[in-house]
Amino acid sequence: MSTVTIENVTKSFGDNVVLKSFSQTFEDGEFVTLLGPSGCGKTTMLRIIAGFEKPTSGKVYIGDTLVSGGKTFVPPEKRGIGMVFQSYAVWPHMNVYDNVAYPLTIHKTPKAAIREKVERALAIVHLSQYAERLPSQLSGGQQQRVALARALVAEPRLLLLDEPLSNLDAKLRESMRFEIKEIQKKLGITVVYVTHDQTEAMAMSDRIFLINRGVVQQSGSPEEIYNHPANQFVADFLGKVDFFKGEIRDGRLYFDGMGGQSVAYDGDRRGRVEAAIRPENLFFSENGPLTGTLEAQYYLGDVDDCRVRVGETLVRVIASGHEYRRLHDGDTVRLDARDVMAFDDDGTLEEMLSIQT
Predict the structure, then answer these.
(1) Which residues of the chain have pLDDT under 70?
(2) CA-based, 20 to 30 A from 289: which of 42, 197, 233, 254?
């Protein structure tokens, strides 16, 4: 069993509380992502699971084994984990084969077993043909795959990944995230992945834990968190979103600063609200209830990223790339909205969003 059970873990560095009462179970074979801005506590939680940090209070179990808590502390090398860091951390003087074999070599595994396990690990990460090359002869993505193979070679119960793709270029990062997910599915191991990149979290995770100031703001599937954020911070951190103050009455949301214009709203809130609309959920419609002026378009190939002035308010609309040829700056356009989110207008939005800066 490679479940990870975390019970009321708190971590402080002096007077600075980095994690506050973190409690959760990561299931066997699950891909879990700890997501959040820099300094939110996600890497600290990963290091506690790995055994590089001790919790100030609380307990951590891997499977049925208590590895941290009270007077118990199991060192990292005895936790049955593999770990991949942001830096590749491959030995420059060793070839690929020896880099991957290193964890087995220091444990004095028989040579025949080492060869079998290394060849299997290299095959998993598609590096079999590069076994004799030095790291200096590899691309950044290939070096990161060496680090991944080295983490997998000892057949760990649990794989921990600390922002492993952040040093790669955009296209390589995209291909690697799918490779890692496929490897995890093939091996059926539990993965805990740390990132500040929401796209990585969305693409790879079974569950996301969005953390801020040491507190889990929301956990759930990517779809759940994206479409049903628990608060303004979650809505803003995951995906693109614009916030508008307004009032809900008689099944409609009336926006401040839009000349009394409104859209339909079928949620359960009433009165003053902080409305949140993702720009892909505002769309051009011949009979749309909002009327405005197209001020700018930014053609990005697959999408047309538009700015529309509605009353005194500039709103963002992400439309199909085909709209770019149909529309022109200065056109009068009509808009409609779907999946409008609304939160209590309690004056805390600015405070919540300032946390990211």
Answers:
(1) 1, 346-357
(2) 233
How far is it, in rounded angstroms, from Cα 267 to Cα 282? 17
3-state secondary structure of 23: strand
Predicted confidence (pLDDT) per residue in 37-95, tens digit? 988 999 999 999 999 999 999 999 999 999 999 899 999 989 989 998 887 788 899 99
Looking at residue 35, its amino acid is: L
C-alpha closest to that of 223 among 240, 244, 239, 202? 202
| HSE, side-chain direction, 13 A CA sphere, residue 164 | 33
Q: Distance of alpha carbon 79 from its chain centroid, rounded?
A: 25
Q: Where are the domains of the chain?
A: 4-234, 240-354
CATH number listed for the domain at residues 4-234: 3.40.50.300
Paired residues of 60 in beta bridges: 6, 68
Assign domain 240-354 to its CATH architecture: Beta Barrel (2.40)
Any idea which residue has 């040579």 for tokens? 111
Question: What's the burial of 49, exposed, middle or buried (CB within 10 Å: 0-12/13-18/19+)?
Answer: buried
In 3D space, the residue among 154, 146, 139 whose CA is nearest the CA of residue 125 turns out to be 146
The torsion region of residue 149 among left (phi > 0), alpha (psi -120 to 50) and beta comes to alpha
Q: For residues 353 and 236, is the Cβ–Cβ distance under 8 A?
A: yes
For residue 202, the Cα-to-chain-centroid distance in whole angstroms is 6
Q: Are strands 158-162 and 81-84 parallel, antiparallel or unpaired?
A: parallel
The Cα-based distances of 80 to 146, 216, 268 in angstroms read: 19, 26, 48
Class of residue 243 by CB neighbours under 10 A (exposed 0-12, middle 13-18, buried 19+): middle
Sole residue written with tokens 């390589």: 172
Give the separation between CA 60 and CA 9, rounded to whole angstroms: 8
